[in-house]
Amino acid sequence: MIHIFLCIFHLSSAAMTSRCIPRGNFDLPVFMTSGDFTIGGIFPLHYRVELPPTDYMKKPLTAMCRGFDPMAFHWALTMGLAVEEINNRKDLLPEHTLAYRIFDSCATPVMAQKAVLAALNGQDVVQSFMCSGASPLLGLIGESGSSQSIVVSRTLEPFRIPMISYFSTCSCLSDRKQFPTFFRVVPSDDYQVKAIAQLLKRFDWTWIGVVTEDHDYGRFALQGLKREIENTKICLAYHEMIPKDYTQERVLKILKVMKESTAKVVVVFSGEGEFYPFLTEFVAQNITGIQWIASEAWVTASMLAETYSFLDGTIGFAIRQGHVPGLQDYIRTVTPERYPSIPQVQELWEALYGCSPSTSTLSSHLPSCTGKEILRKEYSAYMNTSSPRVTYNVYKAVYAFAHSLHNLIECRNGHGPFENLSCANLNNVFPWQLQHYLQEISFSISGEEVNFDIKGDAIPSYDLINWQRSASGDMQFIKVGLYDGAQHSGKELVIEKQAIAWSNQQTKVPVSVCSNGCTPGYRKAVRHGQSLCCFDCVPCDIGKISNQTDSVDCLSCPEDYWSNVNRTECIQKVIEFLSHDAMGMTLTVIAVAGAFLTITVLGIFLYNKGTPIVRVNNSELSFFILVSLTFCFLCALIFIGEPTSWSCMLRHTAFSITFSLCISCILGKTLVVLAAFTATRPGNNIMKWLGPTQQRIIIFCCTLVQVLICTVWLVVSPPFPYRNTKYQQSKIILDCSVGSDLAFWCVLGYIGLLACVCFFLAFLARKLPGNFNEAKYITFSMIIFCTVWLAFVPAYVSSPGKFTTAVEIFAILASSFGLLFCLFAPKCYIILVKPEKNTKQHLIGKVTK
Q: What superkingdom heads the lineage (predicted)?
């Protein structure tokens, strides 16, 4: 129940008077002194509260504070030391003294509000000045927990009383609209989460768990951390909250999540008091392999370090340490003998030495003692003043108020900051006047410059602390780096990696990832319904690469490039064409051999041109056929080599014209053969229409048709070099595009038409009398010719790459050899082997056996 003091006004016959009546009990300060200016202090001297049972029938009993915290008492004593030190100085607050009153918040918001109300009302509640005039309290130092500070600041705000927190880091307290009188000498969590996010990035910890306390500190820290890692590769595996009302069942559920998760790095935003019982259950569950990241609230908690050995290797950011002179000697003076009436001193003695002092008024089951006992090891941190951090913040906060008051006192009328350039009345100083000077304060202490920004925050600076176990077995807090928020972006965090000792005595940096990184050549494929940090590594598709680890997508290679086997780089595509390789050279040799063989036959025929076997059926046609066949063999050579514009146009036109010429000559010879045997019939005078001149005209006209087709082809849509990248994506196939498919097939169709006509006529004359009927050989030659080119069509269409050209060359050579052997082999055989048959009588079948 919150105790509120109401000002009740009573009217009398003389005048209106006022008096303050307390509504319930209130606590007296733990420590207090008197002086000219009073500041308050609120510290969590106990870390938990026992709420009394209530039946709502009668007024509940007062909540009881339990669990004495020696370190918080240490902080409270620091405030007393700083005030005494300032009062003894001649250069700070001369002729004036500071007074203080210190209260216990029991680390809970409700008790913190009770404490601040007690501080506001002063020592004598009945005679309190709260109902009129300035507040007896000019400022307040507190609190450690952010939730408590929120309550205290909101309670002080109507009275415009400034407060300086020594350990409340919640970023929410930087909101000047909600907390206009709040200041702090500890950095905001906005900077702590930035430091932690940079720490996670530095060690490539992308899969983390987060455990927070169920207070504003934990909630706002989590929000800040999520904001910092939002556009990074870091993901939250889980977030669990230590319940405000501690229950074993809820904690076991949290530990089950931690045990089953693959996240090995756990960030904890919690106070020491909330985290201690959680770790007790953690030990019982035998969870191993966790790398703890501590927030500044527990990173230097000696009690945790001494109690839980598995926390070695913990790393986290601690607030900056400083020097508090004379602190150890001062705290040694706080004994039950000197303060017999203060229960907290008795509790301190019981906690430190495990015995109850003889002067104690508390009921205790501990043995009594004299006050000369040896300090217990687990509480040795209470006496350790070598590297104070929170203690140093309390020290700075007191000096901030002292310097502000000093500047207020030094003000001269006519040069003041208030209305009409006035100064504060030293006999009635208002807290809001002190706040004005507090906002503008700047002083140096222990080599550090202390001031506040527009939000009331101090300059952010942290030490990176690593928990390391010494040879003697004691846990030590070793500084292994620092974070300076005043540095440029990216340079704030400095880490001495070689000085860090990791958890579980590991020598390497712990790994905490949901999925191992994808090597070059692979890309990430996010698992459906899971975090972005959980993915599978999928090989890049053919023609795509990834040359970095953890690539989100694969890059397509340029058109003339292709991916290598590992898909890590683009290499230039193989350019393929029918070159003078093994295949090309073979075809070249065959073509040259065919041409040479044809010329040899031509030479034999020229040498024996007067013999009957040569003169039969017009020797001139035979010579034309042999010359055209020579060109047919040689035109195959144009198809070998890198295609160019001229070679593409020449290869198809030369091939079509030479073959048309050859087939036209054969057609002419077939007509002559057919006419010669038909002319032997009485009354038939057909041979006069097939003389040499007419034969030449037939050959010329048939060839001219093909020439005209080729001319139109070259003019309208000529063949051209073509880079085929689609048929086989890993290669660039250099070939000749025919340009016009219609023209190409017209050329082949016309040659086929001539061959078919020739075949038909030769077939009719195949059974005509005579020992050497050339029609039979023409028939065979046309069968071979047509067979070759009919087989060529499907082979040409289906052959890949350079084999397309090779098939066309093969068809040219095969058909040429077919014509050569069918038409001239029998004649050469008679000329060279059977010269006795090379007579007119033998050829016409009139030889006498």
A: Eukaryota
